[in-house]
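Progress narrative, work stream C.
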Amino acid sequence: MTTLSIYDTTLRDGTQAENFNLSVEDKVRVTMKLDELGVDFVEGGWPGANPASSEYFKEIRNYDLGHTKVAAFGSTRNFKNSAASDANLQALIEAKTPAITIFGKTWDIHVRDALHIELNDNLVIIEDSLRYLRPHVEHLFYDAEHFFDGFKANKEYALATIDRAVAGGADALILCDTNGGTLPTEIPDIMAQLKEHLAKQGSKVELGIHAHNDSETAVGNSLVALSCGATQVQGTMNGYGERCGNANLTSIIPALALKMKYEFKAAQKLAQLSEVSRYVNELANLAHNRYQPYVGSSAFAHKGGIHVSAVQKNPLTYEHIEPEKVGNVRRILISDQSGRSNVLHKAKQFGINIESKDPVITSILKDLKELEKQGFQFEGAEASFELLMRRALGTQRRYFDLKGFRVINQKNNQDEAVSAEATILLEVGGEMVHTASLGEGPVNALDNALRKALTTFYPNLKDMWLNDYRVRVLASEHGTGARVRVLIESSDKASQWGTVGVSHDILEASWQALVDSITYKLMKDEIKKNP
């Protein structure tokens, strides 16, 4: 069994991604979460590069980390400065972290065109910088920037930079595919040549991998490099990073633990992986990628009837691992591809008793396929599907009946915001209820009027709220006459649920989804009260 270390750079490399931003408080929270997961190193940023990074390193000292060690990141010294007078190196030391990672140039084109110094001068600053930092830190890592491109362009010079990093005292050499253009097929030969070179020098320095995803190969490159002897892997949670991102640790960690049988602390905490993945997204205020391997909500979702039938008999038929191992869950989807197995599975999930040969299943499937032809979609609106099933069985109570509604939008002048007012007439238990309400737009006004009319009869609706409202235009070639699909996500203190509506009229589609949402809440509470 090979022991390796997981090095997370979400707080530094990850924040270079477009639209991915974290406050100092957020960075501390992420660090604590990664510590719970058992990540070995967390790169906190570049001290001195901006006030927020410096503040993070001061703040994180106030927290006790059970396993994770924080790393400060920076570059080799400026050629014009001595190591002792270089502000960047001093900032790294002042961060007072147990680990320091510095990067240096491996590719000769960068030395000439980016640093504007001689090739030998670059060798000097690599060794000098590491040698200066060595006494001040427990773990010293050297990121060989553009290593693979540099090796392919000028092998002798690339190896010379590595030799100087070893001479400077680096504990590990991290091989960086900075442009993300290297393919997995190239990794073994390059690493074999590097290891042969180091062996001739008598060096036992450890190797690591830091891959970018510009060719969609960052995870593959990382896994191949580790199989070739690397003992540290660097990446980010959910693969965030500049351009196309970094190697995705939420894919690498389970692959290493479950498939390659490596030993490391996070391998013992795999069940927390999906939670940590979502946690990072929530702090960054970004939607979770449902199609992400291992941790995405669709990673173990089954839609086709044949697949569902097979999975119910043996999950291995269409799942490469058990979802629970990474904290995920198996989901059976409902769509026009659904078969009897899907409906029976959902019925069991909803607590509805249906025999496998009950003709109502055929009726439900027929209704489902017809509705999806019209544009309904139940994959994100399972509450609406449960109501459809209960209506087909004749067990769904009608809590209210609509007698009519009217919505007025009014704008009095160019500088004023549009005002919306909804008037609604309902019959509840034989009693007619007529209410009106204002809102931020017509749908909000309609929602407010509906709730206002019903809360007198059903006070528990006060504990329900709307999380998300999405509209999609269907068959857009019809222009403004196209159908629209409205998806609503609602919550109460116990759970959340999705409902759907489809119509040529956005208010009618919204009404359908709103009614299903409220009906589902009332039904759920009634079942809980009278199981």
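Work stream C, second folded protein:
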Amino acid sequence: MNRIPTATPIEPTQPPIVRTVKSVIMKVSVLLTAALLIGSNAFAADTLSTNVTKATVFLSGAQVFRESSNMNIKKGVNEVIIKDVSPNLNPKNIQASALGNFLILDVQYQTEYVPPSAVEPTIVPEKIQKEINWLNDSILFISFEKERISAKLHNLNEEKRMITENQLIKSGGISDTLPEFKEVVTFYREKLDEINELIYVWKKKQHLLAARENKFRIRLNKLQNYARNTGQPSRPAKTRHHILVTTYSDVSTYGKIGVNYLVTNAGWIPAYDLRAQNTTDPMTITYKADVYQSTGEDWDKVKLTLSTYNQNVFAQKPTIGIWRLDYTINKPRINPTTGSVEKISVQATQNFYSQEEAESARRDMSNEALKDNKEITFNQQLISIQNMAEINQNFSNVEFNVKLPYTIKADGTHKLMVVTSDKMDADYLHYMLPRVNKNAFLIAKIGDWENLSLLPGEANIYFKQTIVGNTYLDPQILTDTMEVTLGKDEGIISRRKKINEEQKKGILSKNIVKTYTFQIVVKNTSRAAIDLTVEDQIPITKNEDITIKLEDGGGATLDKDSGRLTWDVQMKPGEEKVIEFSYSIEHEKNKPVS
């Protein structure tokens, strides 16, 4: 290793001020010389072993922190390589820190090409090789025996053919006396029986030999396949990713090196559990996180921080643009269920000169609740058993410091974890729409939900330890009160029917007036008193030739813009209540309405 040249010693006779100036010049020269040597090949880089100790996971992306163990920092300028980091890191965002009495002079991102490896020679175990040799010899001897049996069968068949084709029988060349004929026939019969018996014996041996050969060949194929696979397979070429850190120290010392970098292919998805045990206790909201990463490096027992910060936004001073308001022109939309034209609302739109101006204004609007840019204090009553994270909030960004370490493999598998759990006061009431469903639905209204720092996400709803449904929480569109449906209450039932319909002429002879009367019967079959909201409706119209009038609302509140009728009733256990309302429609008798 090259040494940094030292300055000439100062003469004792020189004044103190000269010695001080020269000492400063010497230190500056040392640092300048060290800086000039960065990137040169004069220093051999040492390999540094590091582990991922923590990670800050954003909604998209993550910041990974690695730290080495306590190591010897050599005197002078040295280079160390942190090997096999994530291939998905951003080289522009690599940072290094020195934990000790030394300096970090430079941090560089490097790649290393690893060529493919050759196949190692196959080494077959001695026992397997002996069996392979024995099988080969056995199959060879079996082939010899098969040839001998085939020759035997050939000879026997030829002998049989010669006997059956003997000319003495065909030409009558022998004496045709009866005793002689019988003697010849007996000879042929005995000889043919003997030959056939021998053919049967040799064919049986041939069959058994073929079966034995087949068994040996199957075993031999298995052993040969095993022998071929005992060699190490070749590894394809790959690229390794490293971080080169250059350090400087005046003396040999000890310390640690930490690096951190941003990676893609990671993130977390918020999810929630809303739980209510009964209609008197507060509701529990459990904040969960579905964390995933496929960064190319496993996170083993890593301390996690979940952040809502958008790390892709540049930290630049925002600029104010021009805010224009105009009417949004929308085409009428047809409701696929009812076939009616949906109501079109006039919306205010914003036009900006640039994307940066749009992002700046969007952030400003999202922070309207932050007065004078003061830091928000996040006060919560946390549940000690279920709270798995500490929460830090600054402006619109929230960080959840997860208390337990987690292991997340780099295969994209999602890891679901509980972040925190809070109890929120809720008002419980029953809602009923008899014209659609005869049963009531239990509703929970939650206030002050803004303090929960919710993000858009799916939520499972539980009531009495039973899942009753799911919903989607979107804080951007929620009102001051969050309304959650806890499911159908079979104990509250209703019956709705039309009890009267009258028709008469109007003031003008060409008009008719139809009056409809409906009755709703509600019964509380449960053992608890309830607050119940019952809704129904009457039709509305924009046609000036049609007149709709609520004749008797039965104590309901009428929303004239929507025609909604609302009754707020209190019901005791086992109580039954009857609600009646009527309305009239006046229109031309020759023009039906619908």
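The first strand starts at residue 46 and ends at 48. No further action is required on this item.
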